[in-house]
Amino acid sequence: MEHSNHTRVTEFIIQGLFDHPHYRGMFFGLFLCLYTAVIMGNSLIIVAIVIHPPLHTPMYFFLTNLALVDIMCTSSVLPKMLKNTMQEKKTISFGGCITQLFVLTSSLGTEVLLLTVMSYDRYVAICHPLRYVKLMSKEICIRLAVSVWAVGTINSFFNILLVLHLDFCGPNLVLHFFCDLPTILALSCSSTYLNEIMMFMGDIFLAMGNFLLTTMSYTFIILTILKIQSSKGKQRAFSTCSSHLLVVTLYYSTIIYTYIQPTSSYSMDKDKKVAIMYTLVTPTLNPVIYSLRNKEVKVAMKKILQFTTKK
User: G-protein coupled receptors family 1 profile domain spans which residues (predicted)?
Assistant: First the structure.
């Protein structure tokens, strides 16, 4: 294989999210508050689930994993973004860009799989309640969680390997506020055909495949709920499903819009706004939508507050 004679790019310049220098302080404060909310909200959920035995169930076990993924996803982007917000020249090293890309893509893939597993958990609980203990045993839950993390990481690993085989010889301006796979491929001065094929196939499996599985699960769930005679039972079940479906719809719509398209048709300006949803807004809302309305979680939160006030 011939080596390229091009000078390899050692750093990338990040365009950023907003081009308003006079409002840097305001944007910095806003995103710092949101990032803090992501870390605090998801961390509290994890602690609440760990210290409160009634929450030691499969649903909350997977919710703990989801909270960890949300922290990882947001932390891969926001710290660097906050730093660049207050700087004239917004840069990231090549190694830093690859690291950010790996952590982000692995967390996104893992979250998609987790949403599917959580929908399966609800399907078993509502459609097959008598078999729930057997089908969602501790051993099975652990295997599902390990598989989810492994698939998300392996998918990201192969994409990163393909990126490392590309040549980057300029320009080095990333038209985004973080290193994302489509934006990085657009900067390569070598063929990205294989990268695009692998990225598209992976996203079809992770995004579309899991979306269809989630849709199937909730189709059966809704059909089962409609057969429930008690109006209170229907209302409670529909409330749980509507919250989960809201997050699933929001998450999948942004992911599919961003990734299931060729690099040539990639719209940077629109996708920067969409990316805020799955890197910041969704991780902020997930603890509220999934947990904070639950009575058991509120009891666990009170335990945490009482413990901290005693200290």
Answer: 41-290
Q: Does a structural domain hold residue 311? A: no
Contact 248, 111 (CB under 8 A): no
Assessment of whether the complete model's pTM goes beyond 0.85: yes
- Domain assignment of residue 159, yes or no: yes
Residue 42 to residue 208: CA distance in whole angstroms: 26
User: Domain for residue 309, yes or no?
Assistant: no
- Sheet of 11-14: strand order equals 91-93, 11-14, 173-174
Q: What is the pLDDT of residue 5?
A: 47
Q: Is residue 68 part of a domain?
A: yes
CB 195 within 8 A of CB 141: no
The tokens for 309 are 């006030």
Other CB atoms within 10 Å distance of the CB of residue 282: 21
Distance CA 128, CA 135 (A): 9
Q: What is the pLDDT, as a whole number, of residue 74?
A: 94
Our count of domains for the chain comes to 1
**Residues shown for the chain:** 311
Query: Tokens at residue 258, please?
Result: 């961003």
Rounded-to-integer distance, Cα 279 and Cα 24, Å? 20
Structural domain harbouring 44: 11-298
* CATH number for the domain harbouring residue 265: 1.20.1070.10
Q: Kindly tell me the burial class for residue 295, based on how many C-beta atoms sit within 10 Å of its own C-beta (0-12, 13-18, 19 or more).
A: exposed
* Whole-angstrom distance, CA of residue 217 vs CA of residue 244: 12
Which uninterrupted H or E stretch holds 255? helix 231-259
Cα separations in angstroms, 140 against 53, 57, 149, 176: 19, 12, 14, 40
Segments of the chain scoring below 70 in pLDDT: 1-7, 19, 21, 240, 242-243, 255-270, 290-293, 307-311
Scanning the structure block, which residue is given the tokens 């079809």? 204
Tens digits of per-residue pLDDT, 227-267? 888 777 777 777 767 667 777 777 777 766 655 555 555 55
